[in-house]
Amino acid sequence: MNVLDHNEEFARAATAVPDTSHRGILYLEDISVSFDGFKALNELNLYVDDGELRCIIGPNGAGKTTMMDVITGKTKPDSGSAFFGQTLDLLRLDEPAIAAAGIGRKFQKPTVFEPLTVFENLELAMSGDKGVWASLRAKLSGEQRSRIDEVLEIIGLKHERSRRAGLLSHGQKQWLEIGMLLMQDPRLLLVDEPVAGMTPQETERTAELLTSLAGKHSVVVVEHDMAFVRSIARKVTVLHQGSVLAEGSMDEIQNNPKVVEVYLGDEH
Amino acid sequence: MITRLILSDRGSRWLFAVLIAAAVLVPVGNLLVPAGSPLHIPTYTVTLLGKYLCYALLALSVDLIWGYCGILSLGHGAFFALGGYCMGMYLMRQIGGRGVYGNAELPDFMVFLNWQELPWYWYGFDMFPFAMLMVLLVPGLLAFVFGALAFRSRVNGVYLSIITQALTYALMLAFFRNEMGFGGNNGLTDFKDILGFSLQADGTRVALFLASCLALGLGYLACRYLVTSRFGRVIVAIRDAESRARFVGYRVERYKMWLFTFSAVLAGIAGALYVPQVGIINPGEFAPLNSIEVVVWVAVGGRGTLFGPVLGAMAVNYAKTYFTAALPEVWLYALGLLFVLVTVLLPQGIVGLLGRLRLRRRTSETTAATAEAP
């Protein structure tokens, strides 16, 4: 059972801070993943700078979710390399170790812990020792409480703190999930379709929230809603058939003939 | 701490009130009230109640993993039986030279098999503290190894249930073999005394009953501590959104492994208290059907509440005692029917039903009050 020793080693590696001395926070190089012969990712190269807010767009099946799976350790690629900062090799870590290293993920479908209250959801997500013994003895300090209150304020769920998360509306669940990401205090946030199913007002608030996070955190947003992407993005990456088709500002992307052909084509 | 563990929860308050009352009234009714009085509690009943308490502890251990973490074990009878065998081995060694063959060293069945010396794994079981340590260690270690293999390979749901069922079945077949050195088909029985006290004496029976009360009470408190701590919230999170819990940074396998191990130790303690009260342990205790019955108790009582399974184990076993005496051929049908009815009509078991009735009474009271109000 040397799996155990390995995990220990990973956990130790993961407590290290990502080295961003060369500005980059995420380096994906030549990543390929195939499922039963279908190439979900095909020699994908992607670099994200520290503090950047990046939008990733692409038609269905372009490999957006698979890419997130690779970064968070859910899927191991067939080839390629993935680094968090200069030194942390993501392919050698498992999901909890990657989370501990500072990568948080928000799922496409909002997933919160439904039987627990909003407050408890944030408590569980809080960064810190997530080991079995630590959580048996865990007590919230005043400082941690005020941190949770602060996040409740940011996500606008202050009055819902004692409500069961399962009773929240769809939009509120999305925000709670973003709040859980904030509690993890990650360096890099991966956000999968944050505004799907939201009302225009909710979408607008989410856009504000994500823009305010950039700078302190690096944020990668996968989104279908072009209006939303236009409203937040400084730099956009277009994925197509598992690799990067184009990269640049929203204007450059919209005028790129290749992109127009495969993706924006139906809009024009 | 007491508030958190007992007072804040209605079910826990009831359970402890009843448990303490039983721990006082049963010994008094048995030992102090004379046999002719209508208030006298016969020793048979004391032992029966003690047996139910052991079942309740077993049900608690299953509920902890199934109700709170979604791990449906259909093999928890195995840990119960292993704890029972450890106690049985101690009681066997206590017989000493008083067996049928009069061999001070070897239990009767070994003499019968023409064995010359005690197998190595029987060493130490003549010492009570060692045997009690084994009661904790043997089920705990098996559960730890099993959990490490199953949970690390991310075996979940139905597949895990089937493996636990296979585990208890395999152990049953193994323990049936005479060469294993655990008495084969007949198991371990003919016990004489425990810690020097005769197992037939009323005083010993009452003491075992009290020990069962204490074990259930402490086991319950330990489970309450677990489920009201952050650990408890993490296992509920794992139950409902396992991959989310992983991405938040919890090592799901470790949580499951330790919870499963703790649960197995509780089941082992229940088995160890059960054996001296019923006077026998045989491979039949490993039968897959036994483990499934435990799941029925938990479902009937209400899983995901610690109080429910205790109630369920008591109620179903009382019904079993009653039916198998009054209408023996009906019992299995009644059990099957009960399970179907509970699954269809009472997904939260008796506890859920009680909660609903209370809610209805409260709403009818408020509607009556508002009707009178204008």
What do you see in this structure?
The complex is a heterodimer of chains A (268) and B (374). By secondary structure, chain A is α/β, with parallel strands linked by helices. Chain A is 38% helix and 24% strand. In chain A, a hairpin with a 2-residue loop joins strand 1 and strand 2. The longest helix of chain A is centred in the middle third of the chain and has 15 residues. Chain B is globular, with a radius of gyration of 22 Å. In chain B, helix 3 packs parallel to helix 8, helix 3 packs across helix 12 and helix 9 packs across helix 10. In chain B, the strands form two sheets. A two-stranded antiparallel sheet of chain B has the order 1-4. In chain B, strands 2-3 form a two-stranded antiparallel sheet. By secondary structure, chain B is mainly alpha-helical. Helix content of chain B is 72%, strand content 2%. Classes of the chains: A alpha/beta (268), B mainly alpha (374). Chains A and B meet through helix 1, helix 3, helix 4 and helix 5 of A and helix 9, helix 10 and helix 11 of B.
The averaged pLDDT of chain A comes out at 86
Strand content of chain A: 15-25%
Kindly provide the radius of gyration of chain A, computed on alpha-carbon positions and rounded to a whole number of angstroms: 19 Å
The counted number of beta strands of chain B is 4
Distinct helical segment count of chain B: 15
Task: Work out the helicity level of chain A.
Answer: 25-40%
Largest sheet of chain B: 2 strands, antiparallel
pLDDT < 50 runs, ≥5 residues of chain A: 1-7, 9-14
Q: What composes the largest sheet of chain A?
A: 6 strands, mixed
Q: Could you state the order of secondary-structure elements of chain A as H and E?
A: HEEEHEEHEHHHHEHEHEEHH
What coarse outline of chain B follows from CA principal-axis ratios? globular
Task: Give the termini distance of chain B in whole angstroms.
Answer: 46 Å
- Cα separation of the termini of chain A: 57 Å
